[in-house]
């Protein structure tokens, strides 16, 4: 596999509006699958609820777990044009709607989970590597600045797309560049500047799969880095419902305000719809208390938005990605 040396520059219109369209992307003809041959695992009608933190939602038309990069590029290159494609990481920021996800959901496995230390305090990671592995590899190599990834329970691909961040740092501060497979199977290298990062947002095109990323830190003392990671872990344990079926922060913090304070002000802490509840521990977290549907969870989020707008005049914006058919 050779990487294209070009960097792509993206326009707002690059996003694929068909991704969430009901009924979009039927990949069959006369009952016959038109899917390209693969070496990895390709599963029709694959349950996704087990793969996301909320433990709710419908199946993917297809779930593809590529054997390696060549498998991924040739599969995407061979897909019928217009087939919706999306990546899933650890599903820690996702509501999968109950009608399931049209087209293909790509999940990166072990072949994409490596983390290697390079020169100049650069850590090179596969798109499927979990944050805790990235942070602890950096710590062991005496590379500071990546500690915050310890506390975000996602993968490198999810961090790059979401501009994940915590404790005053975000991916935009440490990313050098990333390798991306576009929905048509082409590989490109995207430098951080082209992602046009803002708070929990990037301009990575829909359907693009981040397969690798390079993060830069600075020289540091492994003991001090480890102590900071422990502090982060303890603080999270104390303030977030980490052992619940949740999706992390539900709403973005509006400029100059904290979303959880607005949710509290509107009296929504503990609010219940069906099996979904606003966390008693952290008011910007929604929880599946057991048998919630994704409609319960999303409906609860919308009810919170309505009450916050009525009470405070602030229109909260979803941070959690909501995908699929209602
Ligand atoms: C308890 C808890 C605490 C959290 N704390 C924080 C926090 O402090 N800061 C923070 O920023 N977030 C936080 N989150 C949210 C979440 O962990 C992050 O948004 C994380 O970046 C999501 O990573 P993921 O791999 O699980 O992505 P997913 O949730 O699986 O997907 C999220 C989005 O990223 C896309 N995506 C996933 N993998 C790839 C890939 N390889 N290529 C391209 N796109 C991809 C998906 O298509 C989707 O659009 C928290 C979540 C939980 C449950």
Chart the SSEs and their pairings:
Blueprint (H helix, E strand, L loop, with lengths): L27 E2 L2 E2 L7 E6 L13 E6 L3 H10 L6 E4 L5 E3 L4 E7 L7 E4 L3 E5 L4 H10 L2 E2 L11 H7 L2 E2 L2 E2 H4 E7 L5 E5 L17 E8 L1 E2 L2 H18 L5 E2 L12 H7 L6 E2 L2 E3 L7 E3 L5 H19 L8 E3 L3
Parallel strand pairs: 4-7, 5-7, 6-21
Antiparallel strand pairs: 1-2, 3-4, 8-9, 9-15, 10-16, 11-12, 13-14, 13-15, 17-20, 18-19, 19-20
Helix pairs in contact: 2-5
The protein binds flavin-adenine dinucleotide.
What can you see in these coordinates?
The chain is an alpha+beta fold and 326 residues long. The protein has three domains: 30-109, Uridine Diphospho-n-acetylenolpyruvylglucosamine Reductase, domain 2; 111-238, Uridine Diphospho-n-acetylenolpyruvylglucosamine Reductase, domain 3 (2-Layer Sandwich); 241-323, UDP-N-acetylenolpyruvoylglucosamine reductase, C-terminal domain (Uridine Diphospho-n-acetylenolpyruvylglucosamine Reductase, domain 1, Alpha-Beta Complex). 23% of the residues lie in helices and 25% in strands. It has seven helices and 21 strands. The strands form seven sheets. A five-stranded antiparallel sheet has the order 8-9-15-13-14. A four-stranded mixed sheet has the order 3-4-7-5, with no helix packed on it. It has a four-stranded antiparallel sheet with strand order 17-20-19-18. The longest helix has 19 residues, at 294-312. The radius of gyration is 20 Å and the shape is globular. The chain starts with 27 loop residues before the first strand and ends with a strand. The relative contact order is 0.15. It binds flavin-adenine dinucleotide. Residues 53, 86-94, 108, 127, 151-155, 157-159, 161-162, 164-166, 208-210, 240, 242, 246-249, 321 line the site of flavin-adenine dinucleotide (FAD). Flavin-adenine dinucleotide is lined by residues 53, 86-94, 108, 127, 151-155, 157-159, 161-162, 164-166, 208-210, 240, 242, 246-249, 321.
């Amino acid at each position: 596999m050779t990487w294209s040396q070009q960097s792509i520059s993206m326009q707002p219109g690059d996003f694929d509006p068909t991704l969430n369209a009901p009924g979009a992307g039927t990949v069959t003809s006369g009952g016959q699958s038109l899917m390209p041959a693969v070496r990895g695992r390709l599963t029709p009608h694959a349950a996704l609820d087990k793969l996301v933190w909320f433990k709710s939602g419908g199946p993917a038309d297809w779930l593809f777990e590529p054997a390696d990069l060549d498998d991924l590029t040739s599969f995407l290159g061979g897909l019928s044009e217009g087939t919706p494609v999306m990546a899933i990481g650890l599903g820690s920021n996702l509501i999968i709607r109950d009608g399931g996800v049209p087209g293909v959901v790509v999940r990166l496995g072990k072949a994409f989970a490596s983390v290697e230390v390079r020169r100049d305090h650069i850590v090179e990671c596969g798109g499927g590597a979990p944050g805790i592995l990235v942070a602890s590899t950096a710590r062991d190599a005496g590379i500071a600045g990546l500690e915050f990834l310890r506390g975000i329970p996602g993968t490198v691909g999810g961090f790059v797309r979401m501009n994940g961040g915590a404790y005053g740092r975000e991916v935009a501060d440490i990313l050098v560049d990333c390798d991306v497979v576009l929905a048509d199977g082409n590989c490109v290298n995207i430098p951080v500047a082209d992602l046009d990062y803002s708070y929990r947002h990037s301009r990575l095109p829909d359907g693009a799969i981040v397969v690798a990323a390079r993060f830069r830190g600075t020289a540091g003392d492994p003991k001090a880095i480890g102590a900071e990671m422990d502090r982060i872990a303890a603080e999270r344990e104390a303030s977030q419902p980490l052992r619940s079926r949740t999706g992390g922060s539900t709403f973005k913090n509006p400029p100059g305000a904290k979303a959880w304070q607005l949710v509290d002000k509107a009296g929504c802490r503990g609010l219940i719809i069906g099996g979904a509840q606003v966390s008693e521990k952290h008011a910007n977290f929604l929880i599946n208390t057991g048998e919630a549907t994704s409609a319960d969870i999303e409906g609860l989020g919308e009810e919170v938005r309505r009450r916050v707008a009525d009470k405070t005049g602030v229109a909260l914006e979803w941070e959690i990605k909501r995908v699929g058919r209602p």
